[in-house]
Amino acid sequence: MSGSDAEGRGATAVRRRRSWLRPVAWGVLALSTVVLVLAGCARATVLNRVFYQAVLDEQGAYERLYDEVLVDPATARVTRDLLGRLPVPEAQVTANLKNVLPPATLRTLVDEQIGHAVGYLRGEEPRLRLSVDLRPVLTNIGSFAEIYLGDLVASAQGRQSPDFAAFARELTAALDDISRGRRPENLPELRLEPTTARQAAEWLMGPVPEDRRADLRPQVEASLGTGDVASALAAVGPYALGDRGPGAAADLSVLTDDGHWNVVPDLAAAGVDLGAAEEARHFTKLALGWVQGIACVLALASGGVLAFTGSASWPVRVRRVGTALAAGGALAAVVLALARWQVGDLMAHPPRSWPPSVRSLLDDVQHGAADALVSVGLITAALPLLAGLALAGAAWAYEKVVARRGARLTGRRRNAVFGTAGGVLVAVAVAGAVLAPLAAGKEARELCLGSESLCDKRYDQVAYLATHNAMSTTADRFIGPLQDPDIVAQLNAGARGLLIDTQTWETPEEVSERLREADFPPDMKEQITRLVERANPPRPGMWLCHAVCRAGAIPLVETLRKIGTWLDEHPGEVVTLIVQDAIDGDQTRQAFRRAGLERLVFTPDADPDRPWPTLGEMIGSGRRLVVFAEQADGPAPWYRNFYRYGMETPFAYTAPEQMNCVPHRGGTGKRLFLLNHFITDMGGSRLDAAVVNKRDFILERARRCEKDRGRPVNFVAVDFATIGDALGAVDTLNRER
Question: Which end of the chain, N or C, is less surrounded by CB atoms within 10 Å?
């Protein structure tokens, strides 16, 4: 046998041994593409905290929680149990849930838990930690309770205004005495009818052990019979409270970890299986760790084998790479489609005992998440599929068109084509790494007034909750307040329009003149007059007052600074001030300059009929504070007269049935529409606010006025915004738009 024959057979054997390499490389590239697509999809969805918030927003989860779940009669038992220990009527708390737990606070709490869960799944946190910071909620509840307990505490203390710190100290001391069997000295006598005394005694004896009841009952009944409630409580105190009385605050601190609630132990105690999270963590760590790295290396290696080995022409080799990429993308799409088809079996199915509103919300969120995940996965899979088809198509076109004409590539031209093909492959890899996360919202989505959809709405198309006489608050000790929380708390609770009055401190002569025109009741006017007679001198500066600064005042510049700080802390919000101005435009401009707000104020178009920008455009520009005046029009270009741009309804209603839609200041045909929605019957009326601030009442009037005026209502101005559900009505109007 000649040497040349031996060499030929050896080369043939090598080619045979290598013949299996290219099919294997083709399969490895296709499967590696599948792995990379699924891993990229996981990174952009289940391992991306923004993904979860986007799903919650798309399903309207926060609005539905307030508007559907918490008002579902089937949830009444749960909310009643949760609120049973609050010293506030249950109906008042449920009517003010958005103030006790504002949407912004709820979103923050949920986002924190999502962050912990995603960190655990990504292997960044060693254990699943769901810790809710309850301090903002507890603060809101405390402030809310003070509002409703204020008169009661002040009456018990014999004061005009309550001293809650002293009340808390006295209450703690009384509980301490009762827990030790001592009679507290600061509890008043309470005369009871015999039947009522026996019922009270029976209730008080409940915590007492049975073998001690016979000895204690005569003492308890005798004390209650004489009205000595303190002695009766002291008799049963050691059994009812024991050593828990003086340590109640400490116990609560331990329970919540100084305001933090660790949810995981309670979930485990309730029978919730957390093992699925641990199993998912093993998978995600594996997928994002060495599996994804190996898949990337194998994809590059197998692509190199297909592109640079074998005796076939270069179009054939490029076509092999393209078909492998296309097959991998198609296979990944099939896997995702099958997973979506079977996802119903993997979802949590709440018990039938759960309220229907909760089951519906959970079901919609889960299906929304599954649809979003599959959509992102299909977009990601489309990248290698389309790129592969493009490569294969280009190679086929070259063979069918260029090669037939004899214009085969050689030398530098061939190298250029190889370089271009390699560049396309690199572009595919980069596109897969960049576009897949973008498809799921890699960056936090833009929110305007807490909603993504409102970003595309013009300023004059959106409804805003506005607080009438926003500065006149219980919190700031105004006489005859028209709101309860202070201005910052109103913003936290959802107000985005503030109707405020700017004034300078009046002289005694000016007080009398202003009182004649003010809407205070007669007894309040007398009280203010007495204050003036005490020679209370005018205070320099600019103030926010309601009619008369001696009835309550807060400094203008300091309050504007607080509004600016709030806007800085809430970059997705737009706030409007409508100023009843008793100071001139120059003074107002100086106040805004001193407060540092000129950087935030928005300058309306000089033509009131021009369309306004969208909320997204205003937020993007940083100009998110709109300031109108009732009287002035300048000189600052951003300080415009409201009635050039807007119209309103009347505001001097004395009963709910009087509320109408007839034109008032500003006439008709304006782009902005202020709905004055409050009762003024010798001052503000809490009782009437409980009627007119109901969501359905507001919606019925707003829709009627919109039909009459041919323009959407923009500002719904109410008194006592914490009563009723005015914010729910505003949210409904925005959802309908």
Answer: N
CB 162 within 8 A of CB 150: yes
Which domains does the chain show, CATH number per domain?
20-52+277-439 (no CATH), 62-139+263-269 (no CATH), 148-257 (no CATH), 453-736 (3.20.20.190)
Distances (CA, A) of 79 to 82, 85, 95, 508: 5, 11, 12, 51
User: What is the distance between the alpha carbons of residues 461 and 613, in angstroms, rounded to a whole number?
Assistant: 10
Query: At what angle are helices 695-709 and 726-736 packed, to 10 degrees?
Result: 50
Which residues, 6 or more positions from 402, have their beta carbon under 8 angstroms from its beta carbon? Answer: 408
Which helix H or strand E contains 674, and what residues bound it?
strand 672-676
Residue with tokens 């890899």: 429
Nearest-Å Rg of the Cα atoms of the chain is 35
Q: What is the mean pLDDT of each run of 10 residues along the chain (737 residues)?
A: 51 53 85 85 80 83 77 65 49 59 75 81 75 65 58 59 66 72 71 71 78 82 76 76 46 48 62 60 65 80 78 76 86 86 65 77 85 85 85 78 55 53 51 48 64 91 97 87 91 94 79 64 62 60 87 93 94 96 94 96 96 95 96 95 97 92 95 95 81 94 96 97 90 91
| pTM greater than 0.70 (yes/no) | no
* Contact assessment for residue 624 and residue 602, using Cβ atoms and an 8 Å cutoff: yes
